[in-house]
Specification:
Blueprint lengths: L1 H32 L1 H18 L6 H15 L2 H9 L2 H4 L2 H22 L7 E11 L2 E9 L5 E11 L2 E8 L7 H4 L14 H5 L6
Antiparallel strand pairs: 1-2, 2-3, 3-4
Helix pairs in contact: 2-3, 3-6, 4-6
C-alpha cells in the first residue's frame, strides 16, 4: 500500500509540475508574441522605479532618467506629425523640428512631474486590442493602495521591425512651475487623441 501511495504521489507531482510548465510557457509565449505590451510594461517599470526613488531624485534627475527611455521607445516625430495633421505639411523643416522638440520636452516633463511619489501604487495591463497588423492599443491602470484606478491608453505601432509608442491618451495631465515653460501652447488635454481611429483608417479628428 505504501509503495502504491508513493507512486501515486509521484505521479500527481509530475502532473502538477507539467501543468505549471505548460502554463508558464503559455504566458511567456503570449508575452513574446505581444511586443507592443512589452514596450509599455518596460516604461511602466521605469515609472514605478522613478516613483520609489522620488525622495532621492530631483525633477531634473527624473527628467533625465525618463528621457532616455522615451527617446528609445516613443516615436516623438510621428506623434507630432499626427498631432498637427494637415498643418504638418505646411511647416518648414525647422518648424517641424522645433515643434517636435517642444512636444518631446513637454511629454517628458509631464511624466517627471507626475510620477514623483510612491505610496503602494502598481501598474496593471488592463486591456490590449489590435488596431491592425502593425499597431496595438495597450491600456494600463495605475492602481493606488485604496484600489483607485487611473487608466492610460498607449497606441504602439511597428515600423521597420521596431515597436514604439506613437500615441498616449489621455495625457498625464499634470502641470506645475517646472512644466509650464516647456509645454507647446496647443498641447491638448488628451495628447494625440483619435490616433487609434486614423490607424484603423477612420476619419481624422
Amino acid at each position: 500500500m505504501g509503495v502504491y501511495s508513493d507512486s501515486l504521489q509521484q505521479t500527481l507531482t509530475c502532473i502538477v509540475a507539467s501543468v505549471v510548465i505548460v502554463v508558464c510557457l503559455g504566458v511567456w509565449s503570449a508575452a513574446a508574441s505581444e511586443p507592443a505590451q512589452a514596450v509599455v510594461e518596460r516604461f511602466d517599470s521605469l515609472l514605478l522605479t522613478t516613483m520609489k526613488q522620488g525622495e532621492q531624485l530631483s525633477f531634473d534627475d527624473r527628467y533625465d532618467k525618463l528621457a532616455q527611455r522615451i527617446d528609445q521607445d516613443f516615436d516623438i516625430r510621428r506623434i507630432a506629425r499626427h498631432r498637427l495633421g494637415d498643418r504638418w505639411s505646411q511647416l518648414s523643416k525647422d518648424k517641424r523640428r522645433g515643434y517636435t522638440a517642444r512636444l518631446r520636452e513637454s511629454l517628458i516633463a509631464r511624466y517627471a512631474h507626475a510620477y514623483n511619489h510612491y505610496a503602494g501604487q502598481r501598474f496593471d495591463i488592463c486591456g490590449l486590442r489590435s488596431l491592425g497588423r502593425d499597431s496595438r492599443q495597450v491600456e494600463v491602470a495605475l492602481i493606488d493602495s485604496h484600489g483607485m484606478r487611473r487608466v492610460t491608453r498607449y497606441t504602439v505601432a511597428r515600423d521597420a521591425g521596431e515597436w514604439r509608442v506613437v500615441g498616449v491618451s489621455p495625457a498625464t495631465g499634470f502641470s506645475g512651475p517646472e512644466t509650464a515653460r516647456l509645454m507647446p501652447r496647443d498641447t491638448p488635454k488628451a495628447l494625440f487623441g483619435g490616433l487609434e481611429r486614423r490607424l484603423e483608417g477612420g476619419p481624422r479628428v
